[in-house]
Structures are given as structure tokens and as C-alpha cells.
């Protein structure tokens, strides 16, 4: 049986939960298009997060890898287009590390583009009634670190698809951040199932508008 690896993060930045793991963990053992979903929690720590991710990839040899992270303040599910080769942390990670202008992979490419059909995924989510969009930046914190490291890891494996999805706060988190948008866990779960289905079925992306003016 083929595997799909989906990862979420532990809480960070003073939050007591991380919506990525709260939802991703619900997918453990699911069968989607004859593939078994395996989930892993990643530490919100530079370096260590990639060690855990890489070990899971080596163990499972998955067909698809989707890393999921919290993006408090975003209004919808955002499928990341690109990861850049820099750690530039606005806040410390969960081990107190705060790298500034440090390459993730010394000598590596400036950026890696996703290997997921991001526009087809956004279209499918919207057709399912789920707010979604393409994002042009994964930031410069541990989420970007993981996305870049993931894409660098699978760059020599043409058959493996991989990428990153950011999700909003859960409602219970947003309650502590007045005015912040949120999304229910069940909606996020439905979005991730759509993302897995599209990644498994869709070879080429679709040519629809997904860009941004700023």
C-alpha cells in the first residue's frame, strides 16, 4: 500500500493548541484513493523539525507529503507556492533559537517551488464550499523552514509530490485574539482531504488565476 504523509506542528508562540496538529491527527489511518494516511507531529524548532520529517519520509517512502501549519490572521486555507532558503525568525522557536538571515541549506537553491497542484487544489476546495487561495509566501519561520527542507529532500524523487498548506486559527484560539479570523476544525479537515485527493489524482496543475498584486 502507498502512503500519504501529513504533518502538523506542536503549539508555539504562546498558544496552547496548534490547529495544524489538532486537525492533522484526525486523519491518522484514513484510506484515501487506496493510500493510507500517516501523520506526524513536528516540533516547532529549526533543524529538529526537519530531522523528524526526513526520518518519516525515509521510513514511509510516501507518494505525497503535505506539511500543514498555523497562520494566525489568515482568512482561508492557503496553499503555498514557494519556499525560500532563509531562516529569519521574528520570534524564538520552541527551543529558544532565533536564527536571522541563515540559509536553511547552505549552497542550496534560493527557492523551491511546491510540487503540489496548488491551483487545482484551491479550485476543488472552493467547489466544496471551503474558502481557499494560493499564497505567495510561507514566511521565514519554521513553516518555511520545513517547506524548503521538504522540497529539497524530495527534489531527486520525481514521483513524490510535496508541499505546504497554511490554515487559520481555530475558533477557540481566535476568541483570545479579538478580530482574528478562524476556521472550524471540521472545515479544515475537509480541506485537507480534498488536498490529498487532488494530489493523488492530478498530475498537472490547471491554468487559472492565482497570483497577487502585492
UniProtKB/TrEMBL annotation:
Highest taxon listed in the record's lineage: Bacteria
Enzyme Commission number(s) of this protein: 3.4.19.3
GO CC aspect terms: cytosol
Catalytic activity: Release of an N-terminal pyroglutamyl group from a polypeptide, the second amino acid generally not being Pro
Entry keywords, A to Z: Cytoplasm, Hydrolase, Protease, Thiol protease
Alphabetical list of PROSITE patterns matching this protein: PYRASE_CYS, PYRASE_GLU
GO molecular function, one term: pyroglutamyl-peptidase activity
CDD domains, per database record: Peptidase_C15 (cd00501)
Catalytic EC class: hydrolase
Protein family: Belongs to the peptidase C15 family.
Subunit details: Homotetramer.
Protein role: Removes 5-oxoproline from various penultimate amino acid residues except L-proline.
UniProt name for this protein: Pyrrolidone-carboxylate peptidase
Species of origin: Lelliottia wanjuensis
Lineage: Bacteria, Pseudomonadati, Pseudomonadota, Gammaproteobacteria, Enterobacterales
